[in-house]
Structure formats: structure tokens, C-alpha cells
Amino acid sequence: MPPAYQAIIFGILGLCAIWGIQKNISSGAATSRGWTSTIDDNPVGFCLIVCGRAVCLGFSIAVILHAFGLVGDPVANIKHALPFLP
To answer: What's the pLDDT tens digit per position in 43-64?
Structure first.
């Protein structure tokens, strides 16, 4: 896939992650796969959902930087760090 397409697709994914994080923090409730967690009732679940979206945002930034040739391949780095993955 051409680098410009990668940057566009992961840029949209990153913007969706930012929007989701902002919406969750402002409302105090986070939903993932039909499971809703509020910050008052289940703060650990709320943090896990928000942190999962933050990881998605970080990966999107890494892929965008890779598409522009500023960093190495993030997928290769993840495979090197976690050798049990195929």
C-alpha cells in the first residue's frame, strides 16, 4: 500500500481515537463491545477502555511517522519485542 494511503487511513483512525477519548472523558462513561463502564462505578474498566484507545492513537502516530520515513516499521518493532506473536 502506498505510504500516502497509510498516512490517510491511520490519520482517520487516530482522529477517531482522539474523538472517542475526549467523548469518554467528558461524559464519564466509556463503552466497548457492548460493555459500559462509568468512572464512578468502575474506574479500572473505564481506564482500560480509555487506555486501549490511547494505544490505538499511539500506533496510528507511529504508522504515520513510518509512512513519512521518520521512524522504523512499528509492526517489526512489536514483533521483535513480543517474539511469541506469529
So the answer is: 999 999 999 999 999 999 999 9
70: left (phi over 0), alpha (psi -120 to 50) or beta: alpha
Q: Please tell me the distance from the alpha carbon of residue 9 to that of residue 37, in angstroms, as a whole number.
A: 29
* Per-residue DSSP letter, 84: T
Domain that holds residue 18: 3-81
Residue 15 resides in a domain: yes
Report whether pLDDT(85) > 90.
Answer: no
Residue 86 is assigned to a structural domain of this protein: no
Closest CA to 54 of 12, 84, 19, 83: 19
Please report where in the chains the cell 459500559 appears, as a residue: 36
- The full length of the chain comes to 86
Per-position DSSP letters for 12-35, written without gaps between them: HHHHHHHHHHHHHHHHTEEEETTE
| Number of domain units in the chain | 1
For residue 26, the model assigns a pLDDT of 95
